[in-house]
Amino acid sequence: MSTYESEHNTTDPAIDNNPRRRRPDMSTFFATLSEITPAPDHRPHAVPVPSDVSAAFYSLAEAFEVMRQQASAAADQAGDGTNGEELLSQMIESLLSQADTPPREVEGVSEEFCDMLERVPKASLNASQICPICNNPFLEDEYPLVVQLPCHPTHLFDLECVRPWLRLRGTCPLDRTDFAKQLRDKAEERKKLTEQDDEEEWDSMYG
Amino acid sequence: MAGPSTNTAQRLLRELKDYAKSPNEALLHLGPVDDEDLLRWEAVLKGVNGTPYEGGLWHLRIAIPPNYPLAPPTIHFTTRISHPNISFATGEICLTLLTTEHWSPVYTLSSTLTAIHQLLTDPQPDSPLNVDVAALLRDGDLPAWESVVRYYTGEERWQGGAPQGR
Asked: Where is the stretch described as Disordered (chain A) (predicted)?
């Protein structure tokens, strides 16, 4: 007699052929990830700390390691060797090597800095001016989005070209003026000034 | 390895076009090794007249990172060269602008190779990759330095065709 399952070409969902594997615990990883993700709403000046970046890489590598062990156990049972184990090994290796060499400091500037760069109107551009990064004339684009860096009035770039560089290094590609450092120094100074202000206030109150 | 992004490919094609339009005096050849892979280029560098490198030709291998020009290309001599800042064994080049900290996206492959060409006339024996020839320069033994360089410039001169091995 044929069963319901064979007539309907299906399997009994009650019989679980493929028992769900234990999932690696990712909570540590997501917790460290939220630590290093700038959250502009409540921590506007926070930057990722290298040790946090390292920790995130380590915990992700650990999670992959758990997955690899389970994959290899499953592969032994099933009799086929591969099961993405090699890929996982590679991913673990590359994560660990990145965790060992975290960024030394945050070198780039913020997205806001790029947004606030002086825009150069199309009317003031001429056909001979090119973007030093892509080497294409600005006017080749019908709607050029050209910015002028604060270091020199002739340092013009396509915003699209210079933005990734500024976010990465924070320097002018032509004269290496370090905007990221300027911003850090300014923030430092502001902090010092507020501290001084606080002290003066304290003096006047009690002096 | 991941392929180049659109920006990287566009920039490399632009460089290729610009080099065809205005070739570099220092180079005999610059271009991708084959049409399939835009991230692997090769170049042939000419010696500098009036120096012991006069008359030389060297083949260089250029590996371009997928995020170029945000990161510098990796350039090696595949023809052996006797120079204080170039490894005789591996062809590695000690040049600050090839490091991640000193690279700038306004450099092109052509201008980077010009810098390598200038390194031939302006060796820096204080940060050597070839200690033996650097020692000759540092000790001021110019005749010995010149004859060693001249010998290898002639002996190892690139003969055309595919590079040998490395």
From this structure: 1-24, 185-207
